Amino acid sequence: MHTPTHIADKAVEYPKAQDVDGVVSVKGGSTIGLGKAISTRTGLPHLCIPTT
């Protein structure tokens, strides 16, 4: 399953508004996809912990 663009667009707003150092994704599929989208769009490092 992919992460819908409108969800990724909304999710990117939070790290831009806060003093965020990186993105952590835990689980699989859509969660990791969203983490990658946030990381790519913000330039933040991404730690991915797949569990499935």
Keywords:
single chain; alpha+beta; 2 helices; 19% strand; Alcohol dehydrogenase iron-type/glycerol dehydrogenase GldA domain-containing protein
* Estimated radius of gyration: 10 Å
Q: Which class of secondary structure composition applies to the elements? A: alpha+beta
Indicate the mean pLDDT: 91
Low-confidence stretches: none
The largest beta-sheet arranges its strands as: 1-2
Distance between the first and last residues' Cα: 14 Å
Q: Number of DSSP helices?
A: 2
Morphology = globular
Strand content: 15-25%
Oligomer: single chain
Helix content: 40-55%
Count of domains: 1
**Main β-sheet description:** 2 strands, parallel
Number of strands: 2
**Topology pattern, helix = H, strand = E:** HEHE
Task: Provide an overview of this structure.
The protein is an alpha+beta fold and 52 residues long. Helices cover 50% and strands 19% of the residues. The chain has a two-stranded parallel sheet with strand order 1-2. The protein has one domain. This is Alcohol dehydrogenase iron-type/glycerol dehydrogenase GldA domain-containing protein. It comes from Aspergillus tanneri.
